[in-house]
Specification:
Helices cover 47% and strands 19% of the residues. The N terminus is likely disordered. It is rod-shaped, with a radius of gyration of 43 Å. The chain folds into 3 domains: 141 residues, Alpha Horseshoe (Serine Threonine Protein Phosphatase 5, Tetratricopeptide repeat); 107 residues, no CATH class; 92 residues. It is of the alpha+beta class and 372 residues long.
Length: 372
């Protein structure tokens, strides 16, 4: 299931009190969940001008252990961030808020940080900040901000999905979208933007990488990274699996023709020997006058014919043997790497996962991915 990605716009706070009141009324109307589903836009909201971070009365657990100087430093940075937020300097505002949080993790600072992050298209960080903003309920926040935070969470969750990555190979480094998240064995869960993501497993300098298919809003995607040896993923095949005999038949036929050609050579030699003997006998019986060319010409012609057939046979035999050797080379066993999915099917015949391998000289990485 896919949805169009939500876009957020912030209207800067300022102007007269009447303008602020009208803006807040408009915010409430836009922030209703039903309206957000139709047009997922962030309500127009800016930072308050006089926020003191002192709401909550005497019982303020978010202030426990925070010294007064630290609170004052956080407040100063917070107010600087508010000015930059209202001026549309969202990156600088986020930087100030983060500095303030180092001194005091106040829910109101988390809330305003979320406002800045929404404009910077950082839904994961926005989600985390909003969760921290509502951690202690509405007490530490300005009026209506607690409800706004919950409404923003609904909107932001439509831009996010959940992933779970696991790997059992000791020492393998696991990265999600280029960021190392843990060293195996172990498991990692996190919210990510909807869309496609890259999961990488690294071991001994070799990299196994997979790009997951589109992960939709609120989907939970699990992926297990497995490692197989290259030997386990190696198979062999021939060009003509059902005709492994063919090269040898051609070679055998060539050899047979060669033997036949050799037989023709022997017959030719025999005919020439008979011819020579007949000529010699003719010369002896003719008193040294010799014999006419026509005498025993059939023996000579037969010898020439057998010799020619023998030479042709040698040529055919040589060509056949060369062809057979070429076919044998082409049809020799060739190694190839099977998909880890095929190996998995061989082992348990479970087709509900997709496994993508990456092979190295010594080991091969495989990504087993699926939705649950």
């Amino acid at each position: 299931m896919r949805i169009t990605r939500s876009l957020f716009l912030i209207a800067l706070a300022g102007g007269t009190a009447a303008a602020d009141t009208a803006s807040k009324d408009k915010d409430k109307d836009k922030a209703k969940p039903g309206n957000a589903d139709k047009a997922p836009q962030k309500p127009a909201e800016g930072a308050g001008q006089n926020e003191s971070l002192q709401k909550g009365g005497d019982d303020r657990p978010w202030a426990s252990g925070v010294t007064q100087p630290e609170q004052q430093t956080a407040l100063s940075l917070f107010q600087q961030g508010n000015v930059q937020l209202n001026d549309g300097l969202f990156a600088k505002a986020a930087e100030r808020y983060r500095e303030a949080l180092k001194h005091w993790a106040h829910p109101a600072i988390h809330y305003n940080l979320a406002l800045a992050l929404m404009n910077l298209d950082q839904p994961i960080e926005t989600f985390q900040s909003l969760q921290l903003a509502i951690k202690y309920g509405p007490a530490p926040l300005e009026k209506d901000k607690f409800e706004h935070a919950k409404e923003y969470l609904v909107l932001v969750e439509k831009q996010l999905a959940d992933i779970e990555v696991s790997c059992d190979k000791p020492g393998a480094k696991v990265l999600v979208d280029g960021k190392e998240v843990f060293t195996a064995p172990g498991k990692f869960t996190q919210k990510v933007k909807i869309g496609k993501h890259t999961f990488i497993g690294q071991l001994d300098g070799y990299e196994a990488r997979v790009k997951a298919p589109y992960i939709g809003p609120s989907e939970k995607f699990r992926i297990e990274l497995k490692l197989y040896t290259a030997e386990e993923l190696t198979r062999y095949h021939r060009r003509w699996e059902d005709a492994t005999w063919m090269p040898w038949v051609v070679i055998g036929a060539g050899a047979a023709v060669g033997l036949a050609a050799g037989g023709m050579e022997l017959l030719a030699k025999s005919k020439f020997d008979q011819y020579d003997k007949a000529v010699a006998d003719c010369n002896s019986s003719g008193g040294g006058n010799g014999c006419s060319p026509e005498v025993n010409a059939s023996l000579r012609n037969s010898g020439n014919t057998f010799r020619t057939v023998g030479y042709v046979g040698y040529g055919v035999a040589g060509a056949a043997i060369a062809t057979g050797i070429g076919l044998a080379i082409l049809n020799r066993r060739q190694p190839y790497q099977i998909r880890a999915e095929d190996l998995q099917h061989e082992q348990d015949r479970e087709p509900d996962v997709s496994i993508i391998p990456v092979v190295s000289p010594n080991e091969a990485g495989a990504m087993v991915q699926g939705r649950f």
